[in-house]
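User: Show me an example of a complex going from sequences to structure tokens.

Assistant: Sure. Here are the input components:
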Amino acid sequence: MPLYMKQNGGPAVEAAWADSFLLLGRQLAKHQTDPQSQVILVVTVPLRDYAAWLIGVGWRLSKRREYASISASSFKLLRPGNLIALATGNRVRCGIFHGWDENKKRINIDGIHLSIDSVLYANIRENGIGSTGYRDIPRPASILAGTWLEGSWIAANAEVDHDVAIVGVKRSLLAESETLIGLAPDSMNALGDILTVPESTSATSWCATIVPSTDGGRSDLDAGASLVILDGTSAARWLRTVESQFIVCVVDRSQDHESFDESVLRIRAGGVPLENGFLDWTPPPGIEVLGFEVPL
Amino acid sequence: MKTIKEIRNIYEVVRGATRAPIEILRVGDLIGETLTYLLRQIRIELELDGISPWQPTFDLISGLRWHWSQSPGEIRLNLRFGEFLESLERDILRLELMSSNAERIQSVRQLVDKLRSETTAPMAEVLADYLKDGVGTNIAVVLPRNYLVEQYRANLRSAFPGTQILGRTEVKGITPVDQIIYLGAPVLFGSGAWRSPRSEEQVFIMPSWISKPSLPSSELQVAFMNPYTRAVVHRETGTLDLETAGQGDDEVGADFYLEGPRARATEDDSVPLHVDEVWAREVTLSGGHSTLLDVEGEQVRTIDPQGRLGERVKLTDVEEVNVGTYLVVREGASDSDILRELTLQKLGSNGASTLNLHSQWKSLLSLQLRRHGERWVRSRLLHAGMRTIPRVEAWSLDGTFGPRSDTDFKLLMQWLGLDPGDFLDARNQLRSAQSKTTQGIRRQLEAKLSQADMQVLLVQGSLRMNSEISGLASMLACEVLAVSPNVFRVKKHECRSLKLESRYLWLE
């Protein structure tokens, strides 16, 4: 089935090239590796646009997560002042918990009373992470068909996590997040709907984070992130410092990166090269991948 | 931000560009392979003995191997190769102190000796062959390093006019060509086939130590299993047992072989030299030339291209000739041949008789040497009262004048049973004429150099100095690219003349 992409105001265009990146992300998410090892993939592309997002989205579509179902007793654990995200059928609301009425089966968040029956998923923000407010949950579209996310869409839209980190030029990456993707021109989701980031408009939940290239060395970058995508050589200079289980470097070959080439090869010298096809994925013509595994 | 349609089109073009046939030539590169072997040896040491101080050396060799494959010939040209060998020697000494495996250390030492005798850049040789075959077609050569481009352009322009020499970042902009050749190890990024124009064929010339799993995927990886891969080139490496070359490859197509290192081995010096023989080293020169330098010779004419006007031509001790020296040599004849020819011209009608007299005492001296040997002749001369140490072997050769002092010269003549008077006059006439000739040559060369653009010499490595004076017509100033460490016997007249060695052209 062909893949389509659509920019704001533009037509839906068939994008077979994008499929390869999605598939790379998907296959990577399925790959089992030794917890003491780090898998590094250096992907060279003729054009870097969207590659990081597509790989991240592919990962998200395959990386299954389990969410505990909600029950009335769960609310008994809450204390006033807790930050909580509640997902109803079409909206995620994040706010301060003020209490709940067991008889009326209502919960009070920021002075708004919600019926417990309408809450499909609740996520207690123990660390107080996240802004208050609400966000409409986008309608799941064709790209989710058949994936685990299709069945867990509501819960996934209420979680706070950063399983994926993309390091790059933040403004460009955020602009790309608004582009739509789908298996049919009339059924599409934005990239940022699938791989939600806190920086997107009115974010009340997210599963990924975007880090500016200048901050790529920050210590909390890979705390919890299984996949770090370094978008461009300015981000790729953090290759040695990131300790996530998987790293993908996306490098644009229209620029010269002699020192980066050599630094990659030096890191590879201390690791084990991965055979082409180890992910059951072959790069299409024009995309090169160098994969290796190094000890963490 | 590009539109999705634009992005799609770029990927479509890329897809089309990668359909050109790919040919991979894996060249047996002695230096790269030896470095690979060294890496393996050192890794074993590290693992077995846990010697952590070796890690920096490991990194150094690893980096050098990569660098060498990227820029064939460059390390040697920049004298970095010599420095590298010295540091390697130091590390081997350290290893000897720290490790118990004498056998392996010995093998490492032998490999370093092999490296010392290597004077050729095999990948560049293969490139030269390729370009020769492709004369008349539209070929582009892509170098892995942009800073090499000017140097290669200067060298290739005359030999292969029309060949485009490009840096890795310049490939995008060129018009379609018949064939595009990528030189060096496959660069991780930048030289991927996607960037090439729609060429009929793409060729990768790379060192054989690059093994399949190390290659960037897609084009090259696919090409290794592709029927388009036509040839695998190895280089016979003599006694060196290279476990790494072509290991485990399912090679496709015909193999062909190149010669091993050109430098002749050091000969046994227990057999004395024949009277007309000297010990010599092979010197590789720019412009695809070589010459032989007599190791016990005194001085050789050189040029300092950055010297002041009128002071560029110098006489340099043979021992000091090294990589980067600019030698003045003549095609087809040695420096001494030129001198003799011009000296005779200067003597005019008396030239032949003067030379005849000079040759007479030399014949008698040679006869004594043959009959009694050098030691006997020397002791007799000292006994007869000669004050300078007799260099009888040298005096018997053409182009020398005998003892410098007149008293000793007369004594030599008397010892040979000759009347010194005529012979001394003849010697003095010859010496004077030759001295004037030498000065004349120097003036001529200085005059030529004052008009010549020294940049040409610095960039191209050689400069032809045409002159109206016969004998100077075919003189060349050439940069020394390599001096073989090996010494072997040659006929004296073979020394210091220029030989054409096109196989060395790509050392530049």
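The lines above are the inputs; the final block is the predicted structure for all two components together. Chain A has nine helices and 17 strands.
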